[in-house]
Task: structure prediction
Amino acid sequence: MLYYHPIYSALALPKHHRFPISKYQKLYQRLNNNKFAEHIKQPEQKITRDALLLCHDSGYVDAFLAGTLSDKAIKRMGFPWSRQLVERTLISLGGSLAAAEYALTHGIAANLSGGYHHAHREFGSGFCIFNDWVVVAATLIAQQQAEKVLIFDCDVHQGDGTAALAKGRDDIVTCSIHCESNFPRIKPNSDLDFALPVGTEDKQYLETVQEAITLATRIHQPDIILYNAGADIYHGDELGHFNISLEGVYTRDSIVIDCAVTQNTPLAIALGGGYQRNIDQLIDVHQQTFLALLGNPAIMI
Ligand SMILES: [Zn+2]
Result:
């Protein structure tokens, strides 16, 4: 099942804002014309304040909800505050939770949003407000739907918020494969970090992904994998510094999907980053994740 809501792209941003907010709707349209049409639904519930408080500071959560964050905090978050942003954020995280719960019972699901790995306990950063995969992991554990959760992060940027939020928790395992010389400047340690140089190409990257997912799942035996399938590893990405081909993106996602299927471990996928002014080209990259799903004969979406 794929979760999508029109509000994912319905955010009024200043004219030259860096974030390609229309990508969610464009991806939805692309997939809706594909074999996925009957497998896309809207998340039915927003994430609750209680769920957010499992990982985030109540002062920060309430200030965001009420619109009383400082200008500095809003700037660091990367989006101007609006009532619409609050709705979009809560529904997006609801989509990530719905995908994870569906994956637990049916094997695999995706949210056509999410991957907000730069969100920290007390502040948002880099277009991330609340950290969906850590909030989802903590929720599943609190509700005894899972005992151990692996957050596997292949966005080109290191999952700093994820690493910081899961620090000290044995039940949330974090693994990040990222560019060593890119945002964020300060990279708190994940349980497993694979920092690769600027210009990394397919072969080295894909060997690392295979090694990382094998290692993380063998050592930790997670009940579910929460996967950040960032498209910003692509060589044409404007905020990534890797040199990964379109086929490389497809193969990366095939490796992760194949590992989950082979080990019979539920897998929930979030879209993650992806920054190109040419939205059609950007969708070509994000779409690889879903072509990889279609390419796995064991999967009934
Ligand atoms: Zn990124």
In short: The radius of gyration is 17 Å. The longest helix spans residues 83-106. The longest strand covers residues 172-179. Residues 155-157, 230, 232, 273 surround zinc ion (CB under 6 Å).
